[in-house]
Amino acid sequence: MLSLSVLKEALSYVRQAVLSALKSAEAEKVIGVGAYGTPSRAIDLVAERAFVEYMKQHNVRCTILSEESGVLDINGGGDLIVLDPLDGTLNALRGIPMFTSSIAVASGGDFKDIYASVVMNLLTGDLYYAKKGEGAFLNGRRIHPSSINRLEDAIIDFPLNIMKVPWYLQMIAPVMRRTAHVRFLGSVSLSICLVASGALDGFVDLRGLLRIVDIAGATFIAKEAGCLLDDGKGEGFNPELSIKTRTSVIVACNRYLLEQILSLLSFKK
């Protein structure tokens, strides 16, 4: 099993590389297409290469599932690392201080097999992490979700990019109308970690577009913190850790809030 200390040090290495690269005008240059068929910018590849380089240099055996390069066996392969080297690329390039690097480590091929994860806010250095059965932490301090139990009092993050899903706003509108404060931060993993720490009360993305690299690390941290996870259909949350996975997720601070969200949803398109 990979240790948390190795994962933390790896993300610190990534942070140094990313912050240095952001000083260059070349950071935003599109230089290829990633494993998901979306454009890869120079800064994305800097982040991924830094992580891979760290693991190779420290003789860590692992198999990496990454947004940019797909599946990579490092030093002969080993436990699965689900990596989003840079979540919030546009935020990073535009100077919005909300972008992360996110990793989850699993002994098998499903979400339930994750045993550790680390998410770092690359600008501030804030480090969220969790180990299975041991709770979740932010910079060494144990974290818990908020106790808000009414949508009318809640702060919830709703990703609202709807170009591919024009029906989505109509579906989610009943929840948004009841929610006291709506946010859209532009970094899925950071938003979910903020739910885990009690800064936000929920995260709702039911577009069916989320990749496993986007959410594996942060949702595990949220679960260990005490949040509830659901696929939006009341069926729990256990996606496959696969490059093919596209999913939805609700992260709620408690059951009361989750039940209110689910009761208001409509999947009619």
How do the helices and strands line up, and which of them pair or pack?
Elements: H1 4-21, E1 30-33, E2 39-41, H2 42-57, E3 62-66, E4 70-74, E5 79-87, H3 89-94, E6 100-106, E7 114-121, E8 127-131, E9 136-138, E10 141-143, E11 155-157, H4 168-178, E12 181-183, H5 188-196, E13 202-211, H6 212-225, E14 228-230, E15 246-252, H7 255-264
Parallel strand pairs: 3-5, 11-12, 11-13
Antiparallel strand pairs: 1-2, 3-4, 5-6, 6-7, 7-8, 8-9, 9-10, 13-15, 14-15
Helix pairs in contact: 1-2, 5-6
Give a written overview of the molecule:
By secondary structure, the protein is of the alpha+beta class. It has two domains: about 140 residues, Fructose-1,6-Bisphosphatase, Chain A, domain 1 (2-Layer Sandwich); about 110 residues, D-Maltodextrin-Binding Protein, domain 2. The strands form three sheets. An eight-stranded mixed β-sheet has the order 4-3-5-6-7-8-9-10, sandwiched between helices. The protein has a five-stranded mixed β-sheet with strand order 12-11-13-15-14, sandwiched between helices. Helix 1 packs antiparallel against helix 2. The longest helix is centred in the N-terminal third of the chain and has 18 residues. The mean pLDDT is about 95.
